Amino acid sequence: MARKIIIDCDPGQDDAVALFLAFASPDELDLLAITTVAGNVRLDLTQRNARLMCDIAGKHDVPVYAGCAEPMSRALRTAEMIHGDTGINGIEVFEPETPLQSEHAVDYIIRMLLAADEASVTLVPVGPLTNIATAIDREPAILPHIEQIVLMGGAMREGGNRTPSAEFNILVDPDAADIVFKCGRPITQMGLDVTHQVLSTEDRVARIRALQNPVATATADMLRFFDRFDTKKYTSKGAPLHDPCTIAWLLKPELFEGKECNVSVETRSELTLGHTAVDFWQVTDRPLNVNWIYGVDADGFYDLLIERLDRFGA
Ligand code: RIB
Ligand code: CA
Prior knowledge:
9-stranded mixed β-sheet; binds calcium ion; alpha/beta
């Protein structure tokens, strides 16, 4: 039976690839909806970009909702320096046919979860956690209906990518992250420690481009743009494919290695705001609230991604 999921995202080239991977896996994943949030770029762009990915993949029937345009209690920080001014630089932007639902994403999340069976829906947030936390804060009765939360965000050994000690998704809305990490539902967390192991190297992008279908071509074009910042910054070979790690874990968890840990979020310090304190060695008695993913078979990850992207050629 396919797992019911919603993807909450801020496309973002890597968010887009996560959407493509989910679109290509209907036997395992029943994608109920895409909810969008401000993050990499403003909300009017992230919601347009999500709908544009639906068009490229021919998935016009997936409902797309726009959510929060600002973090819960702070000013928005965006990341055009990484993703470009459209948020999905690397491909031509057009006005998508896929419609935007009129309901606010938070209202949709609450309505959908209250109507769902207990522990029946997996939430996959891959941007700032504002929509998810706002829904939990407004209607805690949704919590028993959430099967688990599989999120991209945070870091331990990798420090931070937007400040020396904070990863972007958590930094943008640390108060939202604090609510999610304390919500009591099972969480699997893909931080920079694992996402920095899945680099979109030239040969991997070439394998994607060689598939020669519109989705694979769009993926290769977006990755060609997306990798320029991280390659220069980390002198790595290709940009880390952060967000698709969440979907890949749902499809093939055996590709990953994780450990139950406490993860807590810094919400006050100016110096370390948004830091995720991962108690990997369990030196505190804080609750084990997260399955912290720290290892991945990177070749196996790309083999899975390429096998699924190839399905768009059929
Ligand atoms: O730090 C990486 C995360 O920030 C990814 O989700 C990327 O899309 C950006 O949102
Ligand atoms: Ca993202």
